[in-house]
Write a structure and sequence with these properties.
Number of strands: 8
Number of helices: 2
Radius of gyration: 14 Å
Strand content: 25-35%
Largest sheet: 5 strands, antiparallel
Shape: globular
Structural class: alpha+beta
C-alpha cells in the first residue's frame, strides 16, 4: 500500500475512511508521539478564524488545547464529556457539514486522532456527492498537543 505522511500538516483535516489504496499517517497522542495511520482520502478543514483572532482561536489549536494531557497522564483519554466539547468546537467551524465524534470508537481515539462521523450538508459542503454519513478520522498537527 502507498503511504502519505502528514507530519508537516498545518491544520486540522479529515481522513475519510475509504478504500483508496493509500494510507495516511500522522504523529498523535500528544507528548506520547504515537504514529497512527488509516487508509483513505484527506480533506483539510477550515482553519481560518476571524481576521483579528489570536493563534489560540485556530481550529487545530483549539483541538490541541482540549486534548492536552493532564499533568499526571501522558495522554488525554477521550471521554464522552471531551467528545461533547470536541463536537461543540466542530459545530463552530462548519456551517455546511456535520462532523461529530464517533462514540463507538472513543477507546481507539487519542489526541490528534479522533474517530468521527461526517455528513455533507448543503451547497458549500466539502463532501459533495456523499449521500450517507462517512466514517473518518479527525487529525491535526501534534505540536499543539504537548
Amino acid at each position: 500500500m502507498q503511504k502519505l505522511c502528514l507530519y508537516n500538516l498545518e491544520q486540522a483535516g479529515l481522513i475519510l475512511l475509504l478504500p483508496t489504496g493509500i494510507s495516511l499517517f500522522n504523529w498523535t497522542g500528544g507528548i506520547d508521539c504515537l504514529t497512527q495511520e488509516a487508509e483513505g482520502a484527506f480533506v483539510p478543514l477550515s482553519n481560518d478564524p476571524m481576521p483579528d483572532a489570536t493563534r489560540e482561536e485556530y481550529l487545530d489549536a483549539q483541538l490541541g488545547e482540549l486534548c492536552k494531557p493532564q499533568q499526571d497522564k501522558a495522554q488525554q483519554t477521550i471521554t464522552p464529556t471531551l467528545a461533547n466539547d470536541i463536537d461543540y468546537v466542530l459545530q463552530q467551524v462548519s456551517s455546511s457539514d456535520v462532523i461529530r465524534v464517533d462514540r463507538s470508537r472513543l477507546a481507539e481515539s487519542s489526541a490528534g486522532w479522533i474517530y468521527v462521523l461526517a455528513e455533507g450538508q448543503g451547497d458549500f459542503s466539502q463532501l459533495q456527492g456523499f449521500t450517507d454519513e462517512v466514517k473518518a478520522v479527525l487529525t491535526w498537527p501534534n505540536r499543539y498537543n504537548s
